[in-house]
Amino acid sequence: MAFRDVSAAAQEPGPDRQLTGYEIEHALAAEGKIRVAGVDEVGRGAWAGPVVVCAVVVRSGFPPPPAGLTDSKRLTPKRRAEIAGELTGWVAAHALGEASHDEIDEHGMTAALRAAAIRALEQLPVRPDAVLLDGSHDYIGRPWPVRCAVKADLRSVSVAAASVIAKVYRDRLMAGLGARPDCSWFAFGENAGYPSPAHQQALAEHGPTPYHRLSWSYLDDLPRWRHLKKHRPDIEGQLSLL
């Protein structure tokens, strides 16, 4: 069973609260949940490329995290990369899972997220006592012991670490795709597959690459390429543009 929050008195972080601590890990430890896998995803709202999920288990004893660790969106690309380099040696264990654009088209975003998360979790050396997800929606489900917490990337070191590692990994993957001749117009190195103006202009002029999600509604606005759209009975993946 997933819970919306592990803290009975969860509060929104104030404007002065920028760095991430062990608030949720402490709460879980009080319940006997010592080994926590923080899980976060990146790429949900992109128009191209995979969705990536990272699972992180931090070392016991609540050691001080790398300086500046917080939600990856609050960090510059340079600082994210620096912290990610520190994190991979600092955490007790981490693993990455992906679900491709084809899987997203075929099964929808929720199913793709679940597949990517399970691929990450199954690579961890030890099964966690709790799997902590950022947000209020459990996309993993049984038999994993999932807890959901809003703003977990600002309240949990393990989730913040997963956020940074996943973001840096996927940005590098998309930059690599952007260097390919068939993707050179799309500026994936700058937009990571998200709908920036350069990306949208390239789509209108050149059509989707082999890495685009073809079941998504952006194709409805491109009459020249609309015939390429793939249809699924379930459209939740098109609506989850977060």
Structure write-up:
The protein is globular and about 60 Å long. It has helices at residues 23-30, 77-90, 101-107, 109-121, 157-178, 188-191, 197-206, 236-239; strands at residues 36-42, 51-57, 93-99, 130-134, 146-149. It starts with 22 loop residues before the first helix and ends with a helix. The chain folds into two domains: 23-172, Nucleotidyltransferase, domain 5 (2-Layer Sandwich); 177-235, no CATH class. A hairpin with an 8-residue loop joins strand 1 and strand 2. Mean pLDDT is 89; it is low at 6-17 and 237-242. It is of the alpha/beta class and 242 residues long. Helix content is 34%, strand content 12%.
CATH superfamily name of the largest domain?
Ribonuclease H-like superfamily/Ribonuclease H
The N- and C-terminal alpha carbons lie at a distance of: 24 Å
What's the CATH topology label of the largest domain? Nucleotidyltransferase, domain 5
Order of helices and strands: HEEHEHHEEHHHH
User: What share of residues is helical?
Assistant: 25-40%
- Poorly predicted residue ranges: 6-17, 237-242
Q: Compute the number of structural domains.
A: 2
Principal-axis shape equals globular
The overall strand count is 5
Which CATH class of the largest domain is shown?
A: Alpha Beta
The total count of helices amounts to 8
Describe the sheet with the most strands.
5 strands, mixed
Rg measurement, Å = 18 Å
The chain-level mean pLDDT equals 89
Secondary structure category: alpha/beta
Strand order of the largest sheet: 3-2-1-4-5
Proportion in β-strands:
5-15%
Name the CATH architecture of the largest domain. 2-Layer Sandwich
